[in-house]
């Protein structure tokens, strides 16, 4: 995961933005805003937001441990924090457990907050991304040992944002996946949904023959905009996922 994080973060550090990091326990964020909108107080405000929301979620998980353990959709208990409801809603659409959406849900939370200060926002949380932009952005795809890894990227037009871009992998990192995809990438209306849907997509890919059926499945989830699957030398693409070469200048 450290190697993957370094690669993602090198790709995301675009010259017109100022980037900073916020780390609270397992939540490790890279954040980008317009240069003139950055300030040390903004870093403090984001860290405070993340600490508060993590505490609310941790308190809730102690009250409802089944929520954390579920591998299928799970309805939150009354009084659950908004973050838990966002995770559960995304998981319900994708047919996975709510914790599959936790990184994306935090990316959404922070991204929307930063959007109050900057019209350009990038939030990366463990390879899961919230993006709001007034210009096209290039987002590279890391796919472990696949020969396509670090060779292709997504071109994201401004009018498609804000959106979530999230990746699941059965060969990279420690996140739970029942599949073997080197990268299952989903573009969706928000990062929580993209995160949950990427897990569902990755779970369905064990061999190259599974790619077409998995992409057919993902098309049926409301709010999903596009998807990419990489398994070894095999590649599948659907929807508004526009692939371009990842040039050395972006790596």
TrEMBL record:
InterPro entries for this protein: ApbE-like_sf, UPF0280
NCBIfam families per UniProt: PRK04334.1-3
Protein name: UPF0280 family protein
């Amino acid at each position: 995961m450290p190697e993957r994080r370094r690669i993602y973060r090198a790709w995301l550090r675009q010259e017109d933005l100022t980037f900073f990091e916020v780390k609270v326990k397992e939540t490790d964020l890279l954040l980008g805003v317009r240069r003139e909108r950055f300030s040390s107080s903004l870093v403090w405000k984001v860290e405070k937001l993340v600490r508060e929301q993590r505490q609310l979620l941790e308190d809730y998980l102690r009250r409802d441990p089944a929520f954390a353990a579920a591998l299928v959709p799970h309805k939150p208990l009354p009084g659950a924090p908004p973050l838990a409801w966002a995770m559960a809603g995304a998981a319900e659409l994708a047919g996975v457990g709510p914790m599959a959406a936790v990184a994306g849900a935090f990316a959404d939370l922070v991204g929307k907050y930063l959007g109050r200060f900057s019209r350009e926002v990038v939030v990366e949380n463990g390879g899961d991304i919230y993006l709001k932009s007034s210009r096209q952005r290039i987002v590279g795809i890391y796919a472990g040992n696949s020969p396509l890894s670090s060779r292709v990227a997504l071109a994201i037009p401004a009018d498609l944002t804000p959106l979530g871009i999230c990746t699941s992998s059965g060969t990279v990192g420690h996140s739970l996946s029942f599949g073997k995809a080197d990268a299952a990438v989903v573009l969706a209306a928000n990062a929580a949904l993209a995160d949950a849907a990427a897990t569902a997509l990755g779970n369905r890919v064990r061999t190259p023959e599974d790619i077409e059926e998995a992409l057919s499945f993902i098309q049926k989830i409301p709010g999903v905009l596009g998807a990419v699957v990489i398994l070894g030398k095999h590649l599948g693409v659907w929807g508004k996922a526009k692939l371009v070469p990842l040039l050395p200048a972006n790596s």
